[in-house]
Amino acid sequence: MLNGRRFQESAWDLDRIKIILSDRMLMIARFTISPSLAAGIKKKALLDLILVDSQMFVGLKVFTSMLLPIILLAHLASSASQDCKTDEKCIRMDKCPLMVKPEYTMRTIRHRHCRPDIKTIESYYHEYICCPGQGNVLPNEEICGQRPPTNRVMNGKQAELNEFPWMALILYQNRITLKPKPKIICAGSLINHRYVLTAAHCVSIGYFPPDAEVKAVRLGEHDRSSDPDYIKLLNGKWHWAPPHLEVDVEEIIKHEYFNSNFQNDIALLRLQLPVRYTKAIAPICILGGQITPNAYKRYILEIAGWGKAEKHTPSQVLRKSSIMEVTEDKCPTHFKISLEFQVCAGGQFGRDTCVGDSGGPLMATMGKSLAEFVYLLGITSYGYIKCGQLNHSSVYTKTESYFYWIQQNLRP
Fold first, then answer.
1. Which tens digits make up the pLDDT trace of 152-207?
2. Do residues 47 and 1 make contact, with C-beta atoms less than 8 angstroms apart?
3. pLDDT band for position 232 (50/70/90)?
4. pLDDT, tens digit, for every residue of 284-304?
5. Which of 97, 120, 304, 314 could form a disulfide with 126 if both were Cys (CB 3.0 to 4.6 A apart)?
6. What's residue 310's pLDDT?
7. Which residues, in sequence order, are CB contacts of 224 under 8 Å at separation 6+?
8. Residue in 304, 282, 143 with CA at minimum distance from that of residue 220
9. pTM of the full structure
10. Among 219, 338, 344, which Cα is nearest to 281's?
């Protein structure tokens, strides 16, 4: 237990703690302490400090209002030595144009704090943060397409927790009442900090009720009925995933030549905020540019989504399956697909994408061992009304053919 004298003689200097009331009435603790002191701060010690009688502090009266800055101080101090990720740079926040916006509060960017600025504490913007990369840059295979080791399965089953960290669940709302419309389900794939790639029909009026509109995307999702998600391990212990992240959609870019025949069925969703990569949220690779495609046949592909399953209702939990790519002569002729811009895959009994899986990824793997990565071969587009029938394959938009369209529509 800390006593008043030990507090008085410690390296703390309360005169250096400044509370700034922002325009959003948020209390923000500012401080200048040495890195060694910051590293030595313990949450229990802070809680003990709060319990000390105010009489023990010489000339200092402790008010309830001090609780918030002390808690914030603990958070900032614990993150002061945080390392930035490979695709980030630790710079002053006012030098990071992607993060200097009035709507970005301390709560929005505090998880990016990398080290305090010991020279200036007067300005809100004089903080060092991990600045994300530009929104018009696609990551290379050292960053994208990375996932935890898992068992590949042929029959449809539940995906493992955060097995596909690029999966995005598109959220819709009533355009008049602004209430959520959870019965409309489409998916997408995170391709960098700022963009999700999906199917054009998922953002087109006519393919969902006219009173609906795209509101946001949810990342790091697994079970739609719980947050955070959790699973029971074989040893009986519970494993908890980080809470999912919902980010509003700032702009919808639909392919200008998308039509009712599902040609050019591709669209980009620009997120309002750049997201930070974690074990639960990470991008999938896009072939082209930095990543050169290998000329070999992709026999086994993977699909995932929250679409209709065996009970003909949308799945609460993310499901996955492995399917096979089929040649043009085995793809149903009435689909009239173009293999230059589309991929025909599936046709194995019980393994297929279905209603609610639209916009989700058709995934292929390249490389071996530590050099292995997953790339987005296709985007779920359309198929038979009865899903999962033998010899009834589905059609996917061929992502590689739209690389330059994607690149041209990305903004910083």
1. 444 568 899 999 999 999 999 999 999 999 888 899 999 999 999 999 999 998 88
2. no
3. confident
4. 999 887 676 664 456 679 999
5. 120
6. 66
7. 169, 182, 306, 316, 317
8. 282
9. 0.75
10. 219
Does residue 59 come out as left (phi exceeding 0), alpha (psi in the -120 to 50 range) or beta? left
- Read off the pLDDT band of 403 (50, 70, 90): very high
Q: Catalytic residue positions? A: 201, 265, 358
Reference 374, options 108, 189, 244, 238; nearest CA is 189
Cα–Cα distance measured from residue 166 to residue 347, given in angstroms and rounded to the nearest whole number? 25
Handedness of CA 44, 47, 48, 49 (dihedral sign): positive
366: phi then psi, degrees, rounded to nearest 5: -130, 150
Percent of residues, the chain, with pLDDT higher than 90? 38
Rounded (5°) CA angle 137-140-145: 115
Q: Residues 99-119: what's their mean pLDDT?
A: 65
Domains present along the chain, CATH in parentheses: 4-131 (no CATH), 157-408 (2.40.10.10)
Token digits of residue 410: 């990305």
Question: Position of tokens 């397409």?
Answer: 145
Q: Which residues contact 143 (CB under 8 A, 6 or more apart)?
A: 86, 87, 277, 282, 283
With a pLDDT cut of 70, the percent of the chain lying above it is: 70
**In Å, how far from its chain's centre is CA 106?**
20
Using CA atoms in the order 169, 173, 175, 176, what is the torsion angle rounded to 10 degrees? Answer: -170
3-state SS track over the chain: CCCHHHHHHCCCCHHHCEEEECCCCCEEEECCCCHHHHHHCCHHHHHHHHHCCHHHCCCCCCCHHHHHHHHHHHHHHHCCCCCCCCCCEEEEHHHCCCCCCCCCCHHHHHHHEEECCCCCCCCCCCCEEEECCCCCCCCCCCCCCCCCCCCCCCCCEECCCCCCCCEEEEEEEECCCCCECCCCCEEEEECCCCEEEECHHHHCCCCCCCCEEEEEEEECCCECCCCCCEEECCCCCEEECCCCEEEEEEEEEECCCCCCCCCCCCEEEEECCCCCCCCCCCCCECCECCECCCCCCCCEEEEEECCECCCCCECCECEEEEEEECCHHHCCHHHCCCCCCEEEEECECCECCCCCCCCCEEEEEECCHHHCEEEEEEEEEECCCCCCCCCCEEEEEEHHHHHHHHHHCCCC
Give yes or no for a contact between 99 and 129, defined as CB atoms under 8 angstroms apart. yes
